[in-house]
Give the backbone structure.
Amino acid sequence: MSYTNPDPEPERTTGLEPGGGVPPGETPPAESSLPEAGPREVHNPPKGWGKAPLTVILVLVVLVAAFFLAYAISLMV
């Protein structure tokens, strides 16, 4: 199996200037900005937390806090 160097030889590569640079017309144009990446979604706007999941989380936090408070009080008695 023979090894070939994947790097191009600057003397024989088209589009390279003598110092190894690339002239302005040889590079592809820059990509466009992100807002133009796809269609605008209007059917699913973000509305934040729902009332039911937020209520469940708050109830669980209060129950856990009450448990640890009762446990701390029982240890002191």
